[in-house]
Amino acid sequence: MGRQAVSTAPRHHSAHLPTHLRPLRLLPGGGASLVREAAPPLGSGPAHPPQLAPLQLVSGLPVPSIVHELRRGQRLGDIANRALAFYMAELADRTGWKELGSPTLAHFAEAHLDMDRRRAAELRDVGLMLRDHPAIDDTFRQGGIAWCKLTAIARVVSPAHEIAWLARAVDHDLESLKKAVRNSKPGGPPPKQGKGKGIPEVRYPIRIVHDAVTKRLWEQVRESLSEELGVVLTDDDVHRILSERHLAGRGGASRPVYRIELKQQCVHEDCPSHLSIETADGPVPAATLDAPDRKTPPWMRSLVLERDGVMCRNCGSRQRLQAHHVIFRENGGPTQLSNLATLCSSCHGLLHAGHLVARGDHAATCRFESPHAEALREAAQASRRALVIDPTPPRAPRPQPLTLETLPSRVQVGWWARCADALRTGDGGRIDLVPGFVPPAEGEMPKLRQDQSPEERAPQATAFDGLRGRDRLVDRLQVWATDAESDGTPFPHALFVGSAGTGKTTLARAVAKRMGAHLTTAMGNRASDPTTLLGLLAGLREGDALFLDEIHSLPRKVMELLYEAMTDRQVTLTINQGARSREIVLELPRFTLLAATTEEMEVPDALRSRFRMVERLTLMTPAQLAEIAMDVASRRGFTLQLTAALLIAQAAGGSPRRVGALVQAIRAQVARHEGLAAPVGRGAVRAALERLDLDETGLDPEHRRYLEELAAARGPVTLCRIAAYLGLPEAAVRKRIEPLLFKLGLVDVTARGRVLLT
């Protein structure tokens, strides 16, 4: 049998065809390159509907030629599917179907593309999947994978396992790939070879015969659930969902599966009518009709819904139905069956937003369509042409998941800030690498703090002026600061030792201000694991200062990280992943570590020896504290006499922090009882201390109870017994009550316990 052409259209060479008629062109090299032409705007198509270039179907070809044509046709279909998936994903991103008068993408596909809902959902899902999986997309473009395999792996593939699923799709046939998909979880890797025998699922047929009413209700339930879940459900899916919901809701309130909400009438105002009345004098706007303005009665609304089949006249939905006045009531539209049509709430909103219009002169026969319906029809005709595809612009390289092999040997603090979420602290301070972590790009990281202006970064020579009673210490700090400025280096690492309230934090802030450095403050007990301290160090910039209060409370593993950071400006870390490990070096900018402790002997010698400065802050004399009290009072807007300031200093127990707290408390008492018009004298301060339950030496009721218990014992008392008498923990007695008593010489410690001194 000779070759016979099924199509009688003449042959055309593609070079002589108009642009919109050129057929699909497959470039050599094993794959088709994909070119998108700029689509014309709606309504700007050719005057005459274009025709597709003729496709020649030749019978009688040899078997190898038939197989070649089959493969060629399959590839043409795959490329067309890729274009459909791309634009369906674009439309889904922009929810463009609303502008075209459709409440959902599925309705748009049925109404304007003659496309099945399942098909539209599949194209959208594959298009969105290929955006996030460039390796799969590139392989498809080169012809290495067919469309049917794309739809199969789209259900389970994730960026973390993209390469593994791509290799499985390339190396295995479709049946084996589908079996692997069935044996995998969404987002997980493909199963190992040989896992799962492909045993078919056991199914049990259930035959149900519905009458007309029950069938109609069942279809409404299926459509309701499909709209609720956003997918098209089968009868089997509906059976399973209803069964699960029934079992989950047993013992509680039942949940209706179907409900029709009847709205009173069109609730939107100030909308022009879309209809006019044809008269002998021409079309007359419906607004000129003289009709009574009355609401739709329930019986009439029921008739309207029954007439329209209890479904939306635009999209066919059976949910949230409303009776709409085609000619609006405010425009003279009558409340009659001939002027009422059924719309769902979504389409009703589209109509009042101008994305739908009513065409016709009677509610029972009018149709609802997009204002761009004619342009859409012209665009549909203009799009019926051969698909021309050429190379797309190269994609930006996508970051790959971080693995132990791809870890750099040396990293900067910027890398640590981007990849800190990939590292977790395990038992014993072990640092583990989280599998599958994709580091963000440098531009995607939010700024953790605002950059300081040059004025804020400038050193301030007057930073130490506010420190009272520490003249020798201030002189030493000035020498160190001047030396660092002359060498262009940060302030040396410094350790401040002293009891609580002696001004260690104030000194750290003054040093940072003197050097023009940004100060980061943290408590030692908060840095309980290595990654917390590394986060603090990685947040530093050149010349910054880090203040660690109560540094003796750092865990041993965390302290060891500070040794190398202080001396070499770097930290060597061991990163683990399973049984494997690797060392990386975190390079740090030049910084100053300022530390404070109340327990100097608990700081290891290896750490203490790395501080170039170790300053011990002792309790201050009453004269020094009185000067501080007068400064604090001046900043608070009142004046203290010298004798009053000395009384406050005596009650403060040598602590500058206690002086500040007492000045504020006494100011409140004096303002309430005596007034602040005149300078505050010693008598006003003594009265305020009495109202605060303090004596002139600073003893509070707990101190006095302590002394009373010792006096009543008439001999030495152990710490545990005195703590039991007071109802306080031993640590509270030792750290909060006894220091002031020892300083005042009221209590002594002997081998047998605490004794009261006369």
Supply database-style keywords:
11% strand, elongated, disordered N terminus, 5-stranded parallel sheet, alpha/beta, 5-stranded mixed sheet, 758 residues
What does this structure look like?
The protein has 26 helices and 20 strands. The protein folds into six domains: 4-182, no CATH class; 212-248, no CATH class; 276-369, no CATH class; 410-444 and 454-617, Rossmann fold (3-Layer(aba) Sandwich), CATH 3.40.50; 622-691, Orthogonal Bundle (Helicase, Ruva Protein, domain 3), CATH 1.10.8; 701-756, Winged helix-like DNA-binding domain superfamily/Winged helix DNA-binding domain (Arc Repressor Mutant, subunit A, Orthogonal Bundle), CATH 1.10.10. Helix 2 crosses helix 3. The longest helix is centred in the first third of the chain and has 32 residues, at 63-94. The protein is elongated and about 120 Å long. With 758 residues, the protein is of the alpha/beta class. Mean pLDDT is 77; it is low at 1-40, 43-50, 197-201, 251-292 and 385-389. A five-stranded mixed β-sheet has the order 9-16-15-11-10. A five-stranded parallel β-sheet has the order 13-14-17-12-18, covered by helices on one side. A two-stranded antiparallel ribbon has the order 1-2.
